[in-house]
């Protein structure tokens, strides 16, 4: 079934929309959630929450790319769940990989201008990703979108862990330069 037809089911408030979404994107969304949470049970809950959030969002939202729309929801819910779980296990030694990007982007404050700032940051990141090689882009996205470990990336792309770290370091530096060029507060 095409994405447009699935979205039409959401707009018609048909419960079949969730079944069709799960059939088409369920495995992808579970994999995405599990790459962040490393827990099958938590990943399934996040994917269920994704479907509910999609149900609540459509209408009025009519996404152009359903897979990207669902991936963004799943990723955000997974990160929120991870933060909650890590708060429950203080001192667990878990590393917040997103702190690696702190040198590039300051965390937004609760301010009405944050939405504009986030859109500008997103545009700058997209601009930067278009300028780097395919492998550098894949490594960057594997780490910062799919939350894969250095070891997983190393295995997936058949490269040494040191090279992965080097690519990520160079990418963060390049991103910082791009953000400054685009006038994003760092």
Question: What does this protein structure show overall?
Answer:
By secondary structure, the chain is an all-alpha fold. The chain has helices spanning 3-11, 16-37, 40-57, 66-88, 114-131, 134-144, 150-156, 161-181. Mean pLDDT is 85; it is low at 91-95 and 109-115. Helix 5 (114-131) packs across helix 8 (161-181) and helix 6 crosses helix 8. Helices cover 69% and strands 0% of the residues.
Overall 3D form: globular
Query: Which structural class matches the secondary elements?
Result: mainly alpha
- Per DSSP E runs of 2 or more residues, the count of β-strands stands at 0
Radius of gyration: 18 Å
Helical stretch tally = 8
Helix content: 55-70%
Cα(first) to Cα(last) distance is 43 Å
Q: β content, as a range? A: under 5%
Low-pLDDT runs: 91-95, 109-115
Q: Main β-sheet, in a few words? A: none
């Amino acid at each position: 079934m095409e994405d447009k037809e699935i979205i039409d089911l959401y707009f018609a408030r048909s419960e079949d929309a969730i079944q069709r979404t799960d059939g088409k994107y369920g495995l992808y969304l579970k994999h995405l959630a599990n790459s962040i949470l490393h827990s099958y049970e938590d990943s399934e809950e996040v994917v269920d929450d994704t479907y509910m959030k999609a149900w609540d969002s459509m209408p009025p939202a009519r996404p152009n790319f359903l897979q990207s729309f669902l991936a963004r929801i799943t990723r955000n819910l997974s990160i929120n769940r991870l933060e909650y779980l890590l708060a429950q296990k203080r001192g667990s030694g878990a590393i917040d990989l997103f702190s690696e990007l702190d040198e590039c982007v300051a965390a937004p404050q609760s301010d009405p201008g944050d939405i504009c700032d986030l859109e500008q940051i997103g545009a700058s990141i997209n601009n930067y990703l278009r300028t780097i090689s395919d492998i550098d882009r894949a490594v960057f996205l594997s780490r910062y979108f799919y939350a894969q470990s250095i070891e997983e990336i190393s295995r997936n792309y058949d490269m040494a862990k040191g090279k992965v770290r080097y690519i990520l370091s160079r990418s963060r530096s390049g991103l910082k330069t791009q953000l400054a060029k685009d006038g994003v507060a760092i």
